[in-house]
Design brief:
Layout (H helix, E strand, L loop, with lengths): L2 E5 L2 E3 L5 E8 L8 E6 L5 E7 L6 E3 L7 E6 L4 E6 L8 E8 L2 E2 L3 E5 L2
Parallel strand pairs: 2-11
Antiparallel strand pairs: 1-3, 3-8, 4-5, 4-9, 5-6, 7-8, 9-10, 9-11
């Protein structure tokens, strides 16, 4: 069974940092491009970042460039998203995604003073 389990979210003050993790199982993680998405309350799903199978190519949405960093550990089947310089508008549920039909349950990030 394919599973993606996100963790690492929480409540943080503006300017703070968090590191999100996504533990993958049930498929050949090291051969897949992976994505992070987010969904803020009352808004649609928004793409955040993508990393290719070996981590050599990364893409970011304009609104997170220079603040977020995507990475992966293929030996441990884990995807990461480092969130720095967080803003209140980054408040959302964050999801990792293998493909449009395979997404985790999400981890909540709340940025508030």
């Amino acid at each position: 069974e394919v599973q993606l389990v996100e963790s690492g979210g929480g409540l943080v003050q503006p300017g703070g940092s968090l590191r999100l993790s996504c533990a993958a199982s049930g498929f050949s993680f090291a051969t897949y491009t992976m994505n992070w998405f987010r969904q803020a309350p009352g808004k649609g799903l928004e793409w955040v970042s993508q990393i290719n199978f070996d981590g050599s190519t990364k893409y970011y949405a304009d609104f997170v460039k220079g603040r977020f960093t995507i990475s992966r550990d293929n030996a441990n089947n884990t995807l990461y998203l480092q969130l720095n310089s967080l803003k209140t508008e980054d408040t959302a549920m964050y999801y990792c995604e293998k493909d449009p039909t395979t997404r985790g349950q999400g981890t909540q990030v709340t940025v508030s003073s």
